Amino acid sequence: MKNILRKRLIIPLTVAIIAAISLFIFSIMVAGANSYVNSILGAKDAYDFPYSGEKTPELWGELKTQAERAALCNIPEDVLRNMSTAGLIETCMNYPFFFNFMFFNSPQQGFESIYQAFNGLKELYSRDDVADIILNLNTSLNLQKLITNEKSHALKFNFIQMLSSQDEILNKMTEKQRSELFQISTNRIVEISEKHSDVFSVNFVLLLMGRILIIDNPEFAKIVDEHEQIKSFFETGLLMISEDEYDSFVEKTEDIIRFSIIGR
Questions:
Q1: Does the pTM exceed 0.85?
Q2: For 139-173, what is each residue's pLDDT tens digit?
Q3: Nearest-CA neighbor of 181 among 260, 79, 120, 98?
Q4: How far apart are CA 104 and CA 111, in angstroms?
Q5: CB-based contacts of 158, cutoff 8 Å, min separation 6
Q6: Distances, alpha carbon 229 to alpha carbons 43, 73, 235, in Å
Q7: Rounded CA gap, 189 and 5, in Å?
Q8: Which of 8, 74, 89, 232 would give a disulfide with 202, using CB separation of 3.0 to 4.6 Å?
Q9: Alpha-carbon torsion (91, 93, 99, 104), positive or negative
């Protein structure tokens, strides 16, 4: 497991920025809201955003700031309250600025910026059944089908992992549900490393696994707390660490990670 994770975790910041910009350009090319991810969710009431750079380019160009554009993308309250939770998740995936979490100092900071700007994500966090639907989405997600049917597949995968790893989501899950999600993520890392390492990074999967362990495994949480850079990664989603430092962390946490996997 150590060798698998090391290959995919140490990513220079410049490469990450270039990849994010490329994904941004690629996402603009995506036409229509229907997608493989949406077919898993099966919602019939997702919000159709009337304004975007593609649908209303003249209006979009007249607005001077992103804050003004984001304000146009908030969902009317009467629609928001009556939307299904699956519809809300699909709506968040279709949000014109959902890719913004990759353009901040850290993915977590970017994700929180979406939360502050978009009432759909705020509403999603309040739903009692969000944990069940997020778990089902992760369970049903097939990476090969995602690649085949989603032009912005890597970006959407990262978004799903970031959404799943938020405290507001994980704390709504039972310990059993988090255990199931942890096992799915363990298998996902192996699958990515063996089949899709040229398409997906395991960083956001590891982030999700670590945040689950921090909640449910006090020994792991204690080890993380003693390593500032690893702690920072699980807090921010940004990994800036040397190979030697990572080896030290792995040596001290490999047994507890293995125990966690077996125990689940």
A1: no
A2: 999 999 999 998 889 999 999 999 999 999 999 99
A3: 260
A4: 9
A5: 102, 107, 201, 204
A6: 40, 36, 10
A7: 8
A8: 8
A9: positive
